[in-house]
Amino acid sequence: xxxxxxxNQSLADDIAETIRADRTHxxxxxxxxxxxxxxxxxxxxxxxxxxxxxxxxxxxAQRLQQVRPSMAxxxxxxxxxxxxxxxxxxxxxxxxxxxxxxxxxxxxEASKRAVIATAEQTGKLVRPGQCIMTxxxxxxxxxxxxxxxxxxxxxxxxxxxxxxxxxxxxxxLSGLGVETRYITDAQAGLFVKDADIVLVGADTLLxxxxxxxxxxxxxxxxxxxxxxxxxxxxxxxFKQSDLNLHQVExxxxxxxxxxxxxxxxxxxxxxxxxxxxxxxxxxWVNEKGVYSYD
Amino acid sequence: xxxxxxxNQSLADDIAETIRADRTHxxxxxxxxxxxxxxxxxxxxxxxxxxxxxxxxxxxAQRLQQVRPSMAxxxxxxxxxxxxxxxxxxxxxxxxxxxxxxxxxxxxEASKRAVIATAEQTGKLVRPGQCIMTxxxxxxxxxxxxxxxxxxxxxxxxxxxxxxxxxxxxxxLSGLGVETRYITDAQAGLFVKDADIVLVGADTLLxxxxxxxxxxxxxxxxxxxxxxxxxxxxxxxFKQSDLNLHQVExxxxxxxxxxxxxxxxxxxxxxxxxxxxxxxxxxWVNEKGVYSYD
Lengths: 294, 294
Known about the structure:
Two copies of one chain form a homodimer. Helices cover 46% and strands 14% of the residues of chain A. By secondary structure, the first copy, chain A, is an alpha/beta fold. A seven-stranded mixed sheet of chain A has the order 3-2-1-4-7-10-11, sandwiched between helices. Chain A has a three-stranded antiparallel sheet with strand order 5-6-9, covered by helices on one side. Chain A is globular. In chain A, helix 3 (50-67) packs antiparallel against helix 4 (72-87). At the A-B interface, helix 7, strand 3, helix 8, helix 9 and strand 8 of A face helix 7, strand 3, helix 8, helix 9 and strand 8 of B. Strand 3 of chain A pairs parallel with strand 8 of chain B.
C-alpha cells in the first residue's frame, strides 16, 4: 500500500474483492457492476492531482479485468471503458469524473441493450408452446423467458450446484407463470428429451465458438446432441474472447461450497465453469442474429 | 387388512415400506436386506397353520419384488429365494422356518460372493497408479477400491445429489488411503479427462446391455465417450433383467429431497435412476469376467 493512498487503496481492494468473490451475478451483470464500482471509486477519490486519480483508476480497471478470467464480458466491457477514458482529453479532476460518469452510464446501457437484443434474436428460435431447457442462470436466457412468457412456453431448469443459480431462475419463472420442471444437475440427461430447444448463456465465447459457462453446461450439450435436441449459446458480443480452448482459465471457487467434511486423502474440487466445444453447439446468437462458425 | 392378521399385516407393511423408501443401500445390499427381512417376518409370524404362514410369506416376497422396479437385483434375488421355498417340501411351520433361514443365509452369501467375484474381475482392468472415476455409490466398485487400495490408485468421485451417496464413498476411500478428488455432479465433464477408466455399478442391467444406475451415470458415460475414456458397468449376474429400455420403470423419489421451496407453476422432479445405452458402455463385468453384448 503506497503512503498517503491508504483509503483509496483500501477501497480499490474492496472493489476488486467484491468482483472476484461474487457468486450471484451472471457475467453481463457482473461486468456492469464492475463499471459502476469504477465510477464509485472515482467519485470517492480524495481531492488530489489529476495524474494520481487517473493512474489509480486505470490500475483498478486493469486489475478488475483480470479477477474473473472465465468471464470475458468483465474484461471486455472494462476494456471498452478504458479506451474511452484514454482517448478522451480532460484537464481537471472534475472533468475526468464527469467523463467517467458519462462513459460508465453509456456502457452499462449498451450492455443492457445488447442483452435485450440478443434475447430478442434468440426468441425467434422458439415457437409458441415449446419447451426450453437451460442450465444455471443467464440474464439473456431469463430475458428470453420474459419476452416469451405469454406464448405458453414451458421450461426445464437445473439446480446448478453448488451455487444453485437455478433456484433464482425458478423463482423468476414462477413469477412469470411459466410452467417449469426443476431438476438436479444429474437429471439433465433424463429430461433433455422433453425439451424442444436448449438455450444457455455464456460467461465467455472463445475464438473458435466454444462456450465457457457454468459447470454442467458441457454435459447438457452432450445429452442434447445425443438426443438431437438443438443447443444454442446466447451471448452478446461483449462476451467474445480472442482466447482459444487451451488459453482460457477456468475459475476455481471456495471448496467450502461443497458439503462434505474435510477428510485425509480427499480434495474437494470446485471448478465453476466448463467448456462446451463448438462442435456440440447448433448455433450462436448475439444481438445481430443467429450465426455459425463455419 | 385381513381379520386376525393385524400384526402380521402391519409387519409386512413396515417391511415393504422399509425397502421401498430406502435411500442408503445400493441394489445388491438392498436385495440382501429384503431377504433378511423376509426371514425376520417368518421368525415373527404368529403361531398358526402352515398354509397361512406360507401364503403370507409368498405374498410379502412378491410385494417386495415390485417395490423397487429400477433394481432388478431385488426382484431377482427374491425370485431365487421364492423358487427355493416353492420347490422344497416341508410339513410343519417349524420346518418352513428352518428352510427360510437356510435359504436366506445361502442366498445372502451367494450375493456377497458374486459382488466380490465381480470386483475381482473388474480389478483386472485397472493397473497400478491409475485413476478410477465413478458416480454414486456401488458396493461392487467400492470392493474394487478395497482390493486395489495398495496399488497407488487414485479416484475421482461425484457427490451424487440429492442423496449424496458419493459422500459415503468419500469417507470409505479416505479410510482406505486412496487419494480422491470429490466433485459436484456437474463437474463430471471437467474431470473425466483425468481418469484412466470409469467404473460404475448398476441397479439393473437391461436385456440389451443398457445400464440402469443412479441419475447422472448417463451424463458421465457421454463425457467418458467424448474423451475416449473406457467406461465399464460392473454388476453381478443377479442384476440382469429381461426387460428392455422401454419397459423398465425409473423410480421417482420424494421431491422434498430437492432444496427449493414450493412455488406456483413449478414442479420439482426427482428421478433417481437413468439409463445408459449399451452403445456408451465399453464392457460389462460380472463374476465370470469381462464380456460384451455383440
